[in-house]
Amino acid sequence: MSNQPSASTTSPHMSADCEQCFGLCCVALPYGKSSDFAFDKSSGTPCSNLRKDNRCGIHTQLRQKGFKGCTVYDCFGAGQKLSQVIYAGKDWRDHPESAREMFDCLPALRQLHELLSYMKEMMMRPETSSLHAAFDESYQEIERLSNLEPAALLRLDIADYRSTVNQLLVQASEMIRASVPPTAHGQGKSKKSKKRTGSDFFGANLKGADLRGASFRGH
What is the dihedral of CA 2, 173, 141, 113, to 10 degrees? Predict the structure, then answer.
């Protein structure tokens, strides 16, 4: 199979577009007061910083205000798809009867979009060319699931789908790491040492270690 990415990797767009979302992550997702969030918030409760136009009132000051977690969250495009495609532009504020269902769909759809994003990347890597056909097949199935109606989406056993895709991702990871050439240091001797899966490096001094191609997967 060609090393070029499949046509299916061009859709849907996997990057968050907050301008097209109804602030779903700021309402649907719960969080606890911590170094990442300044206060507790339950699922379905709008963040006090969320404005009526679905914009964040402290967007340019998130880290300073104690909301570092917001700056690293990525919905992989699930937010705008729910807002503009699955719910056809119907804001949860104007349609409160659909709000709870919409909020419940966000975590489920985000997981599917996350898988699509990972598979898309793997189909663009020449090192994984022997897996491209399998990835394309899984991609099309997960993409189909991501277009289901809300009720059907919420009935999915997403953990099962994640497990299936993960098997391919692990194989792809091994192929990519195996393609990383050893790097010589000092006397021309290779000091590259690949970490064995499941090894315990807690407290280890890895300063100066060449960890390219190493695996840090647990058991």
Answer: -120
The full length of the chain comes to 219
Q: Which residues pair with 50 in a beta bridge?
A: 56
Q: What is the pTM of this model?
A: 0.82
Residue-wise pLDDT tens digits, 43-81: 999 999 999 999 999 999 999 999 999 999 999 999 999
Q: What is the token pair recorded at 64? A: 């300073």
- Chain centroid offset of residue 152 CA: 21
User: CA 177, CA 116: separation in Å to the nearest integer?
Assistant: 21
What is the rounded distance in angstroms from the CA atom of residue 89 to the CA atom of residue 95? 10
Angle at 74 between CA 76 and CA 46, to 5 degrees: 110
CB atoms within 10 A of CB 23: 23
* Residue pair 40/33 in contact by the 8 Å Cβ criterion: yes
What would the pLDDT profile of 34-44 be if each residue is shown by its tens digit?
A: 999 999 999 99
Cα–Cα distance measured from residue 37 to residue 86, given in angstroms and rounded to the nearest whole number: 29
